[in-house]
């Protein structure tokens, strides 16, 4: 069994080598995305695994993979909008993803950033960096006094709910499907009611046509001026210019942003010698009440291990049986 993995980082290599040894397979790695320029590398392999920084750039990629005899594309990520599912299906390619590589990793990120925001730690960092050690105006809140609003109470959102409930916070949520396992500590309500009620709004929804710009100018007017927004889901779930405007106009108190529209321009890249021109990034970074991170909410040892193992397990399963545990439909 020969598998090629695209866009592999150094930190993934130990898990990849361990999986290959356990399964007596050959797993080769490449440090670039799957594209028309790189698809020829897949020739001679039985299967491929990818994680994309940008959408697959041509229908010919799928056609070439089909011509090579490849039957699948396994993504080692939850998001699959980088793949044209209709074109993949037309070329007999089964697409899989990793829907829950580590709900705990993202949930702990949401908890961490909530604690930083409600303790005004990012503002104290700004002050002390300039040798201003005053406390004035930055009295904190305790988490058990807050109402945490979760938009998207699936695997990750449900884990967020459990963490905050354990700390004594009131937890409210909105989701098309109400999970009976969360009933004892989550109150479900519609999105507008949640936005009006929550002290912290944390987003954990998939990126779908119905969730693109789910939070925009209208939604920010519904939030409390003392409320915080956390986005550790997908960038386009939030209308970025509307977020910048809401922060500038003090419609909300602050935000922790791990994902943003057009993030493929800069995430996991060293741009210390490059002038960044993205106006939304520059605006968010200039605001002392914004915590800005480069899509690292997932980035823990357990998550990386699971992303590698689950994607390769699905690849192996398709090659051996024609089926996988995590197909995207």
TrEMBL record:
* A GO molecular-function annotation: (S)-2-hydroxyglutarate dehydrogenase activity
Q: Which domain of life is it from?
A: Bacteria
- Give every D-isomer specific 2-hydroxyacid dehydrogenase catalytic domain span: 4-329
Q: Which PROSITE patterns match?
A: D_2_HYDROXYACID_DH_1, D_2_HYDROXYACID_DH_3
Query: Where's the D-isomer specific 2-hydroxyacid dehydrogenase NAD-binding domain?
Result: 113-297
Keywords associated with the record: Aminotransferase, NAD, Oxidoreductase, Transferase
InterPro entries in the cross-refs: D-isomer_2_OHA_DH_cat_dom, D-isomer_DH_CS, D-isomer_DH_CS1, D-isomer_DH_NAD-bd, D-LDH-like, NAD(P)-bd_dom_sf
Give one GO biological process term.
L-serine biosynthetic process
Task: Name the family the entry cites.
Answer: Belongs to the D-isomer specific 2-hydroxyacid dehydrogenase family.
UniProt protein name: Bifunctional amino acid aminotransferase/2-hydroxyacid dehydrogenase
Which organism is this entry from? Loigolactobacillus coryniformis subsp. torquens DSM 20004 = KCTC 3535
């Amino acid at each position: 069994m020969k598998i090629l993995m695209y866009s592999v980082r150094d930190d993934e290599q130990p898990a990849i080598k361990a999986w290959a040894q356990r399964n007596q397979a050959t797993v080769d790695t490449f440090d670039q995305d799957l594209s028309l320029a790189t698809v020829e590398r897949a020739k001679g392999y039985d299967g491929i695994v990818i994680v994309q920084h940008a959408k697959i750039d041509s229908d010919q990629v799928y056609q070439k993979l089909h011509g090579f005899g490849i039957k699948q594309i396994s993504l080692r990520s939850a998001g699959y909008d980088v793949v044209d599912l209709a074109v993949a299906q037309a070329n007999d390619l089964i697409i899989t993803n990793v829907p829950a590589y580590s709900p705990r990793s993202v949930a702990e990120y949401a908890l961490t950033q909530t604690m930083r925001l409600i303790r005004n730690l990012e503002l104290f960092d700004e002050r002390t960096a300039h040798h201003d050690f005053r406390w004035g105006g930055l009295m904190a809140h305790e988490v058990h006094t807050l109402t945490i609003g979760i938009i998207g109470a699936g695997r990750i959102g449900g884990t967020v709910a459990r963490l905050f409930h354990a700390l004594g916070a009131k937890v409210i949520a909105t989701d098309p499907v109400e999970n009976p396992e969360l009933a004892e500590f989550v109150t479900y309500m519609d999105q507008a009611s949640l936005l009006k009620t929550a002290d912290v709004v944390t987003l954990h929804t998939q990126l779908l046509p119905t969730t693109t710009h789910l939070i925009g100018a209208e939604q920010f007017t519904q939030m409390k001026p003392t409320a915080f927004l956390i986005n550790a889901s997908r960038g386009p779930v939030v209308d970025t210019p509307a977020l910048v405007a809401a922060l500038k106009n003090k419609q909300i108190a602050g935000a922790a942003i791990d994902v943003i529209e057009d993030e493929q321009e800069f995430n996991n890249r060293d741009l210390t010698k490059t002038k960044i021109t993205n106006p939304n990034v520059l605006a968010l970074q200039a605001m002392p009440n914004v915590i800005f991170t480069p899509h690292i909410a997932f980035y823990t040892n357990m998550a990386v291990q699971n992303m590698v193992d689950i994607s390769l397990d699905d690849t192996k399963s398709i090659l051996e049986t024609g089926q996988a545990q995590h197909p995207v439909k």
